[in-house]
Amino acid sequence: MKSDSTEVARSAIKVAITSSRSMEEQMIEALKKKGIQSVAVDIGGSLLESIPKIVERALVASKRTGIIQDCHLHDGAVVGAAKEAIMQVSGKAMGLNVGGKIGIARYKEHISVCIFLSIGLLHLNEIAIGLGHRSLPSPDELNTSAFPEEAQ
């Protein structure tokens, strides 16, 4: 891949904007063939009240599918990227009802979280997309310690 971080961001967006469960599954399979792990999660409700649930769903889905390991470092990467994505859409959606999807993608040390939302406002719908990226150790680097005496 030319730029791993750019391709991972594109992948998270592609998964988040799928319009059906079957399209989502097809996209996840296509990305898997490229070595990119991905997952999508539906979200909805009042944005302000849903922020903790959005972050939790991103974290649980990432762990459940093996995109991240169950460790503090990986948790922080997903939570940080999810919060960044939320901040990017919050200006349009604060105080309003939203419905949409979170897309998460990882390749090596790059992980991106995309939030794609339809924002309800009377009979009109606004659309917003937010994207967060973090770097974390690739799986083979996680088992090595920065302190050699701890590795023994």
From TrEMBL:
Keywords: Activator, RNA-binding, Transcription, Transcription regulation. The keyword Cell membrane does not apply. GO terms for molecular function: RNA binding. CDD domains: HutP. It comes from the Bacteria. The keyword Cytoplasm does not apply. Pfam families: HutP. Homohexamer. Antiterminator that binds to cis-acting regulatory sequences on the mRNA in the presence of histidine, thereby suppressing transcription termination and activating the hut operon for histidine utilization. Belongs to the HutP family. This is Hut operon positive regulatory protein. The lineage of its organism: Bacteria, Bacillati, Bacillota, Clostridia, Eubacteriales.
